[in-house]
Amino acid sequence: QVQLVESGGGLVQAGGSLRLSCAASLATFSSSIMGWYRQAPGKQRDWVATILTGGNTRYEDDVKGRFTISRDDGKNTVYLQMNNLKPEDTAVYYCKLTRLNGANYWGQGTQVTVSS
């Protein structure tokens, strides 16, 4: 069973920064697509960013230029650097791992709260 453990969430003022981490217990991590999603209270879970094998990245429009997704295959870890945070970024952030066979796995989530 693949396990994903997120960390790095917390409370920050608007304009501040946080870095989320997601560590995976999967030997073939380097061949997996990694993504970050977020879910605000009362809303659906939305896609934030994706990093493909090889390092190509994709971002949701609202976070472009503020968030950076990266991966360290040697540590089986994906990161989300979040700068210039806004109150509307407040949500539970989840990482997702997609294996080559299409199977998806989710972390438990980490709370990010941005105060105005």
Please give a handful of descriptors for the protein shown.
116 residues, mainly beta, seven-stranded mixed β-sheet, four-stranded antiparallel β-sheet, 11 strands, 0% helix, globular
Describe the structure in your own words.
The strands form 2 sheets. Strands 2, 4, 5, 6, 9, 10 and 11 form a 7-stranded mixed β-sheet that branches. Strands 1-3-8-7 form a 4-stranded antiparallel β-sheet, with no helix packed on it. The model has no long low-confidence stretch (mean pLDDT 96). It is 0% helix and 53% strand. The protein has 116 residues and is mainly β. It has no helices and 11 strands.
List the helices and strands and how they pair.
Blueprint: E1 4-7, E2 10-13, E3 18-24, E4 33-39, E5 45-51, E6 57-59, E7 67-72, E8 77-82, E9 91-98, E10 104-106, E11 110-115
Parallel strand pairs: 2-11
Antiparallel strand pairs: 1-3, 3-8, 4-5, 4-9, 5-6, 7-8, 9-10, 9-11
Give a short account of the largest sheet: 7 strands, mixed
Order of helices and strands: EEEEEEEEEEE
Number of DSSP helices? Answer: 0
Class by SSE composition: mainly beta
The end-to-end distance, rounded to whole angstroms, is 40 Å
What is the overall shape? globular
- Taking all Cα atoms into account, the compactness measure Rg is 13 Å
| Beta-strand residue percentage | over 45%
Short description:
The protein has 116 residues and is mostly beta strands. Helix content is 0%, strand content 53%.
